[in-house]
UniProtKB/TrEMBL annotation:
SUPFAM superfamilies: MFS general substrate transporter (SSF103473). The chain crosses the membrane at residues 21-45, 51-74, 86-104, 110-129, 150-172, 178-199, 245-271, 277-295, 316-333, 339-364, 371-394, 400-421. One of its GO terms (molecular function) is nitrate transmembrane transporter activity. This is MFS transporter. The keyword RNA-binding does not apply. It is a multi-pass membrane protein. It comes from Massilia polaris. One of its GO terms (biological process) is nitrate assimilation. GO terms for cellular component: membrane.
Length: 439
């Protein structure tokens, strides 16, 4: 019988574990590209619709608000239906509002489709779920962080590439108003292509697909197959009763929530405060997202290494340190007065932010493996709660720079939740050795 992989053979797709690894980060990349494709075009959209700072804040809030609900739902759905079905449907259905936003003719219609596009942000939970059931405890932190990091880079790629795509269309004679709409069709089509590939070439876990395994009375190395017989909400209830889940809910809001917020406001911030062109602002903002290509994986890899040399609490300590670094770096970014120092500060705090995200999900598989979908969903939703709260804060202050300064203090304070996740001494070693759950 197949089992979880204990190594990452990066340059092969012969095993179901590595096919899932590569296709899940590619699907995640596509979803994040689509999710943030509007953000670098906002200076153009702002001018066309005559948007105020309050309306831009509403759009940013809408972009992440619905993701909270969908992330809570897709976690248990993975336990019940399997990640293969769940991801395929999310990609296929999520393409509809991505294509719809291109047809927007007013602030209200743009806001509506931007709200619906937020659902594709739940792709993160499925990505983390799928790699968690495919890889063993000695490499699961690295696998989770690498898949999520490379997928997250889709946000950075959108920041850099969408303005270039718009510029190319304008050079071909397409008007700017039609050009941004045509550019937004591209990620929608890519999502439909990815849905077909995911359905055809992945399976739910090393042993096969959940439906087939349940029909044959089979079990798997992880418990989600059995948990699914009781319904996905059993997984959600079990996860919701674990206090560590809610502590990580807060910490993830303070790292991934900040990441989403920066993706949404960076281009506008650089244009308004440093008088950059839309192309220059897109490249500067894109560098933040592209850090995910290695930084998130680095956070997971260091977490795995520290745990092997120490205990499960070594993962907790790393997360605490990274969040302190994130908060201090964000404060520097908020106070930077020149474009050079602003970009340097953004890259520094971005490095800590992405690594903290990776370190958070390096802990997730050890919280409660019988409720993995619920755990991943609730903690993932925390990231979007953080982004929504940051959006409301910006709407209240009316100033991006002031908002960033306040957020830096909140990030440092939330690091206390990270250190409070600590496990009892007797529970550490079994968790690291076999993937058993610390209580």
């Amino acid at each position: 019988m197949a089992s979880k992989a204990n190594r990452i053979d990066l340059f092969t797709i012969r095993t179901p574990q590595m096919r899932a690894f590569h296709l899940t980060w590619m699907a995640f990349f596509t979803c994040f590209f689509a999710w943030f494709a509007c953000a670098p075009l906002m200076p153009v959209i702002k001018g066309e619709f005559g948007l105020t700072i309050g309306q831009i804040a509403n759009i940013n809030i809408a972009a992440v608000a619905i993701t909270i609900l969908v992330r809570l739902v897709v976690g248990p759905m993975c336990d019940r239906f399997g990640p293969r079905k769940t991801y395929t449907w999310l990609l296929a259905l999520g393409a509809i509002p991505v294509l719809g936003v291109a047809a927007s003719q007013s602030y209200e219609s743009f806001l509506f489709f931007r709200l619906l596009i937020g659902a594709v942000g739940a792709s993160f939970v499925i990505t983390q779920y799928h790699t968690s059931v495919m890889f063993g405890p000695n490499v699961v932190g690295t696998a989770n962080a690498a898949a999520a990091g490379w997928g997250n880079a889709g946000g950075g790629a959108a920041q850099a590439l969408m303005p270039l795509l718009l510029g190319a269309l304008v050079m071909l004679g397409v008007s700017e108003g039609m050009g941004w709409r045509a550019a937004l069709v591209v990620p929608g089509v890519l999502m439909l292509v990815m849905a077909v590939l995911y359905w055809r070439y992945t399976q739910d876990c090393p042993e096969g697909n959940y439906d087939d395994m349940r029909a044959a009375g089979m079990s798997a190395a992880g418990a989600p197959v059995e948990a699914g017989k009781k319904g996905g909400w059993a997984s959600f209830r079990a996860a919701a009763s674990n206090y560590r889940v809610w502590l990580l809910f807060v910490t993830y809001g303070a790292c991934f929530g900040i990441e989403i917020f920066i993706h949404n406001i960076a281009a506008v911030y650089y244009v308004d405060h440093f008088d950059l062109t839309i192309g220059q602002a897109g490249m500067a903002a894109g560098s933040f997202g592209l850090l995910a290509l290695f930084a998130r994986a680095l956070g997971g890899w260091i977490s795995d290494k520290m745990a092997l040399r120490g205990t499960l609490n070594s993962r907790v300590t790393l997360l605490f340190i990274l969040m302190i670094g994130e908060g201090l770096g964000l404060l520097w970014f908020a106070r930077a007065d020149t474009i050079v120092f602003a970009v340097i500060a953004m890259l520094v705090f971005g490095l800590f932010t992405h690594m903290a995200c990776g370190a958070t999900y390096a802990l997730v598989p050890f919280i409660d493996r019988k409720a993995l979908g619920g755990v991943a969903g609730i903690i993932g939703a925390g990231g979007n709660v953080g982004a929504v709260m940051a959006g409301f804060l910006m709407k209240g202050t009316g100033d991006i720079r002031h908002t960033l300064a306040i957020l830096s203090g909140l990030v440092i304070f939330s690091a206390l939740c990270a250190i409070a996740v600590r496990f009892t001494a007797g529970a550490d070693e079994p968790s690291l050795a076999s993937g058993a759950v610390a209580s």
